[in-house]
Amino acid sequence: MNGFKVLQPGLLTLLQDAGRIGHHRIGLTSGGPLDMLAFKWANRLLGNPVNSTVLEVSIGGLVLEAEVNTLLVLTGAEMPLKINGIEFERWHAHRIKQGDRIELGYASQGARAYLAVSGGFQIEHSFGSTATVTREGIGGLSDGNKLKQGDYLPCNEVTSGQAFRLPELHRPEYTDNISLRVITGYQQHSFSDFDKRMFFSSDYQVTDRADRMGYRLSGPEVKASIDGILSEGICHGAIQIPADGQPIVLLNDRQTIGGYPKIGSMISLDTARMAQLLSGSTLTFEEITIDDAHNLHCLAHVKFERTEPEDVS
Amino acid sequence: MRIEIAGENALIIYFGEDTDPHTSAKVQRAVTILETEMADKLIDMVPSYASLLVIYDQLTCDHLEIQAMLQNILTQLESAPQAKGTLITLPAYYSTESGPDLENLAQRANLSIDEVIQIHSQTEYRVYAIGFAPGFAYLGEVDPRIAAPRLSTPRQKVPKGSVAIADQQTAVYPAVSPGGWNLIGLCPTPMFDPNKKPTMPVQVGDRIRFEPISRTQYLALGGEL
After folding, report:
1. Are the beta carbons of B53 and A238 separated by less than 8 Å?
2. Taking CB atoms and an 8 Å limit, are A26 and B48 in contact across chains?
3. What is the CATH number of domain A177-303?
4. Which ranges in chain B are annotated with CATH 2.40.100.10?
5. Residue B204 in contact with partner chain A when CB distance is under 8 A
6. Which UniProt keywords apply (chain A) (predicted)?
7. Global pTM?
């Protein structure tokens, strides 16, 4: 099969589709892209099915060599895209010829970029998904491994694929000092009004212990009135408060059950924004109702569907 | 039964506050009922000791709709047939060679090694939850005489198949991983195999018994030392 040769894997590059669904009962987590919006745009700008496999590139440094003719697009973090040494526009599909060298620099804003090719990378599914979860050793090219030098990424030869460009005004901005929306839930009654107010009115910093499993934050201590709970299911975005009072926002590679008290959960539109922050960034929390969360989710969905990218085929 | 909001597309149902077989059986019955009655509405479920997390598609249903459906459907819970859970026997090679914490655990409990083995293998356990890692089944409850707290310094590498105790829980490590449980033996049955169907020999609600085997039997069953 045709494909791309990995000349340099970058810091952390993972094959991801939309995620692994329906296997929580045997302990498998969801995996999938941390920034769902940038992932969805990467596929849409090539006319790909929504669940096509792309590369999630964290921080940068990926270098590929094409052994295929296809189209390629890069969305997400501001990571310079060079084809044969010349810088090309991101959020814009480009034609790639056999022998081309594709090089990603390091992100100047944001942390995760998504590189898609026409039709998606052709990767074998494990448990119905290609999503790479390194902690579980599942997905990706084999055994949940991140990309390494010498890997080969198979994809189809495409000479007349669709190609689009997303106009600047529709592109997300990846900025620091953001407010992230949280629905209170789970053990929220085990937090005093004072502790909740502290949580929703303070600045928190992203620590260097922030990865695909969860973002550990640092800031004013928040205390639950209970030490732990009987282990229970953890949903995406759940915010654990361990004994040290420092919140952990659980993301795609979280463990499926756990016993720390949780104050609530961040909405997925905002976990995507948080996952674009590097350690040291500042954020705050804002409380919203679940009805507002549903509305925001549906509005974002409609907006995505109705935003027409420019045809550049 | 109490339903709480967990996240933007997740509700959590609490069936009780404690670890007990009765509550666990309720969770299990709820999973079975919801699988047939609400399969088209739910994306995934996470059963645990006394709770069930349900995840739904918020583009097609909202929390009120799901909550109403859950409340309505789960009225059948009390009258649903009691699932007994399949009884599964897992062989275990208990020894100081395969269980580096066996001796310490026996000393702390003021028991002989043989007594610890006897107590561990004569109890029938229930699979309360699966999580932590793919295929990691939390089994309860361990006889209080051999319950032991987690190690103060977790091991970097616990061997695959290790039979272990933490407080009143016991488990078999499905793969090599870091871990702080007390290791008392090795089980040759693979607890998680992605290429097999089913991928796990046990599911939540099953009953488990450990059967002591010799070193030779352990090796013959494919166990590694």
Report:
1. no
2. no
3. 2.40.100.10
4. 87-220
5. yes
6. ATP-binding, Hydrolase, Nucleotide-binding
7. 0.93
